[in-house]
Amino acid sequence: MENGQQGKKRKAGNMLRNHVRKRRPDHRHYVSIRERRQRRRRRLFIRRIVVLGTILALLILAVSLIIVSCRRNQKEPEKLKDGNMKLLDQYYAEFTGASGEKKTEFSAWFLKNCGEEAWKEVSGRLKKEELKDEDFYQITGKTMHVLSDLYQGWLKDEQTAAKHHIYLRDSGKAKEAGLLFAGDVCLEEDDFVLDYYDKVKKLDQCISPEILKRTNAADVFLLNHEYCISDRGEPLEGKYYTFRADPKRMKLLEEMGTDIVSLANNHVYDYGPDAFSDTVDLLDQAGIPYVGGGRNIKEAKQPVYFVVNGVKIGYVAASRAEKTRYTPQAENDEPGVLLMYESDELMEVVREASAACDYLIAYVHWGTEDSDQFEDYQHEQAEELLDGGADIIIGGHPHVLQGMEYIGGKPVIYSMGDFWFNEETKYNGLLELKVTGEGLAEMSFIPCQQTEYTTRYLSEKEEQRELYDYLEDLSEGVKIGDDGVICEEKENPK
Q1: Which of 85, 143, 357, 439 is a plausible cystine mate for 107, CB 3.0–4.6 Å?
Q2: Is 295 exposed, middle or buried (0-12, 13-18, 19+ CB in 10 A)?
Q3: What are the CA-CA distances from residue 115 to residues 119, 122, 139 (Å)?
Q4: Predicted TM-score (pTM) of this structure
């Protein structure tokens, strides 16, 4: 019986083991699934690595291509810029008349000081071989002459500019120089305008406030300084009229707004070399430059320049006013004026000055006193000066207005008459020019009249028109509008 129980127990145990075996998976089968899963994960991982590697490689390739392209694009403009800079340096050398072998760094200076946009404009026109001198003024607001002076360091401050006979003006007017001219001024102490001034004590009672406002507002105002200013010297022997003012009268020039004077006339030397030298010294002390006279011939020939709103204006002056020559020409070591009885010396001055500026004014003392008609020799000499490089000729000495004409498109104003001189009643006025980098934009006449030691502005339209008609009658091929603007009257084509 004991054995029977044991047999039953074994049978029950076997049945339990068989049941367990049926519930548990086959071990070999389980290992196979795990390996498959691991292999699948490895394959997925490898695929991801490959994809990521491919993407990274493509990114590296793309970045490399961009870098290479950028470097190539940078090199090409650098080569182009270098080439155009050489062209601009060559252009500048030709402009200044420098030798082609002489290297300049104007292009690098231009790029630095005028900016990238200006450089691109100039560079583009250089490439097309279309660059002209006038383009610099359009692009930068400064003419090539002004840019050249800046490049050479001549305009870094007023003191440096003055050493090169250049004076700086900037009125804020965009691309325009406003120039004003008067005729003869005489500040003689006895029996002339100073007697009246000493009586009224105010300049605006001698010269209309409207006129003084204009002379002070002009960018550059020039008059003919037809007297010496000194307390030394004796009147030249044999000369009928001699004019001298006390040094205290310098303040009147300043009150007028005088920027420059001409010494090329027949009265600035009336009291000899000492008084003439005092005149020059006092002008220097007042900061008023002068042309047409000096302590020696070099000073007498020296042009004066004004840089006004990006334009460089030049002034020269000379005289041929005396039949009996009391006023000497300056010499190497002797003071005096620049004479123009022969044209050679003045022509040399005009040619050199013209090459150094944008617009050149020749202010000359010539003609016949008290005659409203200009002489044949004046027309002929005017032609020479204009051909030599002057852009306009403005005259004085006859003490009355004379006519105007255009020669080759350039204006000649033969006489501005007296501006403030004596008690005589006569027409006079101011000549106004508006000059840009392209040349003369507008010329007009401001109508005035001298009477009883005063100069007054003609404000009535009828008075103005009468003066304009009077000037037109004296002139050839000139029209003056009701606004005083002067134009060349060209013949109608047939």
Answers
A1: 85
A2: middle
A3: 6, 11, 11
A4: 0.83
Kindly state the tokens that stand for 84. Answer: 């155009």
- Alpha carbon distance 287, 154 (integer Å): 18
Q: Which of 73, 75, 64, 110 is nearest to 91 (CA)?
A: 110
User: How far apart are alpha carbons 224 and 387 in whole angstroms?
Assistant: 24
Q: Determine the 3-state secondary structure of 405 from DSSP.
A: strand
- H/E element holding 199? helix 193-200
Taking alpha carbons only, the member of 317, 261, 302 closest to residue 284 is 261
Task: Give the H/E segment covering residue 442.
Answer: strand 439-451
List the chain pLDDT tens, one digit each, 494 residues. Answer: 445 555 555 555 555 555 545 455 555 555 566 677 777 777 777 777 877 778 887 888 777 777 756 655 444 344 445 678 888 998 999 998 875 555 679 999 999 999 999 999 998 898 888 899 999 999 999 999 999 999 999 999 999 999 999 999 987 766 789 999 999 999 999 888 999 999 999 999 999 999 999 999 999 999 999 999 999 999 999 999 999 999 999 999 999 999 999 999 999 999 999 999 999 999 999 999 999 999 999 999 999 999 999 999 999 999 999 999 999 999 999 999 999 998 899 999 999 999 999 999 999 999 999 999 999 999 999 999 999 999 999 999 999 999 999 999 999 999 999 999 999 999 999 999 999 999 999 999 999 999 999 999 999 999 999 999 999 999 999 999 999 999 999 764 43
| DSSP reduced 3-state for 23 | helix
Across-strand partners of 313? 306, 359
Q: Across the strands, what pairs with 486?
A: 480
The Cα–Cα gap between 370 and 246 comes to: 27
381 and 185 Cβ atoms separated by less than 8 Å: no
DSSP 464: H
Q: Quickly tell me which residue has 């403030």 as its tokens.
A: 420
CA–chain centroid gap for 110, Å, is: 16
- Which residues partner with 220 through β-bridges? 179
Q: What number of H helices and E strands is found in the chain? A: 15, 21
Identify which of 218, 281, 291, 212 has the alpha carbon closest to the alpha carbon of residue 252: 212
Output the DSSP codes for 340-374. Answer: -SSSHHHHHHHHHHHTT-SEEEEEEE-S-TT-SS-
